[in-house]
Amino acid sequence: MPSRSLHVAVIGAGAAGLVAARELRREGHWPVVFERAAGVGGTWLYDPAASADLLGAGAVHSSVYASLRTNLSRECFGFSDFPFIADEGGEGDGDRRRFPGHQEVLRYLQEFARRFDLYGMVRLRTEVVSVRREASASWRVTSHSTSELAGSGGPVEEVFDAVVVCNGHFVTPRLNLAILCAGIGSWPGKQMHSHSYRVPEAFHGQVVVVVGYATSGFDISRDIAGVASEVHVAAATCVEMQRTARPNLWLHPMIERAEADGSVVFQDGNRVKADAIIHCTGYKYSYPFLDEEVVGISVDDNRVGPLYEHVFPPHLAPQISFIGLPFRVYFFPLFELQSNWVAGILSGRIELPSQEKMTEDVAEFYSKMEARGCPKRLTHDFGALQFEYEDWVAEQCGKDMMEGWRKAMYLAARKNMVDRPENWRDEWEDTHLLSQAYQDLTKYL
Ligand code: FAD
Prior knowledge:
This protein is of the alpha/beta class. The chain has two domains: 7-172 and 283-404, FAD/NAD(P)-binding domain, CATH 3.50.50; 175-279, FAD/NAD(P)-binding domain, CATH 3.50.50.60. It contains eleven helices and 21 strands. It has a six-stranded mixed beta sheet, covered by helices on one side. Helix 10 (404-419) runs antiparallel to helix 11. It starts with 6 loop residues before the first strand and ends with a helix. Flavin-adenine dinucleotide is lined by residues 11-17, 34-37, 42-44, 61, 63-64, 68, 70-72, 77, 127-128, 166-168, 170, 216, 289, 324, 331.
């Protein structure tokens, strides 16, 4: 049984913050969720406006583009006890696809917040600007209103027993340094980061270079190929130029240099004269409200650390924690597991190892990465490794391991993306896994 009931500040009301609030309350804590936007949903709260600085984040949080469809199927996407089923005849736009559009995910999150009565805990239009540790081991959280109607109300300071950081990490653009150094400064065309990409129309009839071929680069290059005259993708995994199934979409190795006459030269010597470059090069973790010097948590080449199991800084555990840092994962189920772990540790139901043991563990993890030649920026990159991690967190929480069908569906979808790059979301071969998924999920309907 929980022994401690704490007053907890949760920063952010995206998927991670919402499920963290639910798990904390279920455990007997008193969460307050700070959310600077006017609604819940985080990155799924589509914003048609892009940042004024097309290579920066500005005040725009969401990186979602108009045509975005999920890259996980509904069965795999949702929280464990709240299946992501289609809105049958409800207020939604009737998107019943297995890999639905972004509006459907927002609807799901809003429904989740209603179903578990979370809205009462969320302070909308309230931005956390500073989180400081007090001598008493509590946390002073300073926030201010982002409402234009708020008048001159100044910052508000409050003290909490613990802080759970859920501020999202697909917001601040990360640019490829090698490309930035290769003459791009004097290149005359238009440049933007995928954070600011919304719709393809502006690229009508143009020659566009897309840098990066992970999820956003893959989708955006196809979105633009529908209107552009040519799309050239510079992919780290490509060794020489290849034509794709689309007649106006090519794959190239990375960019060698950009020239003042508008040319873009690839590493295999091929060149194109382009009108625009879209950098789909990922994002940087950012915690502007945490003073690195004071709190001792840094972001070094996109490694947030030191963190025990990607959640707790050993020297401050468990009073501050981070939910949702891993990427290439089942985001929502992972947020739920991590949140349950944090809630259970804060209440005393679950024990953490000693600070020394956690510190050793983190050091060992980092040195293993280094020995494998794995750069720091991939510290939180999981892919298929996520299953081992999720099972480990589930075990800490006393929960069942993640269902086998979820794991199998993840791998089947990745394979399908390679086998059917043009229509992998609408044609699949994992039907045999669906009956198991439905058997498991219908008990929550
Ligand atoms: P966010 O959703 O980013 O929420 C963070 C919240 O914190 C925001 O509401 C923000 O306003 C708030 N906030 C930040 N700073 C402060 C502050 N100082 N004070 C107060 N509030 C603050 N995942 C999938 O599972 N499937 C997909 O198909 C998929 N596609 C994606 C496509 C794109 C383009 C992107 C960017 C992400 C995609 N993801 C996908 C990953 C997605 O980020 C996660 O699914 C998830 O929604 C992230 O939730 P989060 O709560 O961690 O962060």
